[in-house]
Amino acid sequence: MFIKVAEEKDIAPGGMKGFSLNGRDIALCNYGGAFYAVERACGHAKARLERGALTGWILTCPLHYAQFDIRTGEALSGPAPRAPDSRHPDPADPALETKGLKTWPVKTEAGLIYVDLP
User: Fold this and answer.
1) How far out from the chain centre does Cα 18 lie?
2) 98: domain range?
3) Which residue of 26, 58, 95, 106 has the fewest C-beta atoms within 10 A of its own C-beta?
C-alpha cells in the first residue's frame, strides 16, 4: 500500500529526510529528482543515515562512513577505521559486518512522494 510521505519540494536534490511510518523508520533520498526509500538506520551501527552524505546514489553513514547504494540497499563498503577521539570514542573495526539496507518502492504523483509500505 503506497503511503504519502512528503512533497517533492521538501527534499532538495542530493538531500535526505528521515520518517517514521507504519512502525518503520525510513530515509527518503533525492538523487537527481528520483526518490528512493531505504532503511533509516545503518546496517553496521544503527546510525541515522539521513545525517550522512548523499553523493549521487551513494549514501555514506555519518558515524563510521560505511557506504550504501540507495537504489538497491547494497552495502558497498564497511566502516572506515579511524583512531578514537573524545568526539568519536568508537574507532570502528572494519572487519565488522555491514548489512545492506532494506528498500521500498517509491512513486511520485502531482508533486507528492509515496512509499509502498506493507
Assistant:
1) 8
2) 2-116
3) 95
What 3-state class would DSSP assign to 27? strand
Give the separation between CA 80 and CA 94, rounded to whole angstroms: 6
CA–CA gap between residue 43 and residue 111 (Å, rounded): 31
pLDDT digit string (tens) for 32-81?
999 999 999 987 778 999 999 999 999 999 988 889 999 999 999 877 76
The domain that contains 100 carries what CATH number? 2.102.10.10
Cell of 105: 518502492
Task: Give the model's pLDDT for residue 95.
Answer: 56
Measure the N-to-C terminal CA separation of the chain; round to a whole number of Å: 6
What's the pTM value of the predicted model, to 2 decimals? 0.85
